[in-house]
Predict the 3D structure of the following.
Amino acid sequence: MTEALWSELQHYSRNKFNGELDALRTKKEKDRSGVSEDQLARGHGLILDPLDTRFDEIEVEHFKAELRTYLDAWLEAYEIKGMAPDERIWKELGSFKQQSIDGLNMSLRQTATGRANRAGRNSAPGIARADALGQKLERSAHAYMKILHCEIEARKAMERRHGFQMGRT
């Protein structure tokens, strides 16, 4: 694969992914609002802490949706160019996962520290909570990556066996 072709694939997949990202973020915020409204309706009060454990599942599912969307963008880029998926997709997905996890962990810790500083409290409990959510995201992403890797391998096998791209006959 030439450097120019690789650059085209990167550009296409990045634009495709970024185009889908807004919809994912909107869904996440809608889901978070739904949890907050449910708590209010039950008389439990408003959830003000963005690190509240009641949001964990939403965060995990959102991150898995980002991984899926990123992979789909790469698969579509390869399909448009008439190419079979290769190991570069897996490497890109792995890199994206790690960079995202690292960024999320940093963001969660900064959120916890900022909230504690504004309230004049000790930041240790918030940081511990942020770390726990980060670990939950990491474990979930690790398991989900295995599923995505199997999908990449299945598409590669289909190409070898049948000589056609998935979605094109």
User: Anything to note?
Assistant: Residues 3-46+53-162 form one domain. Helices lie at 3-41, 56-80, 87-119, 124-162.
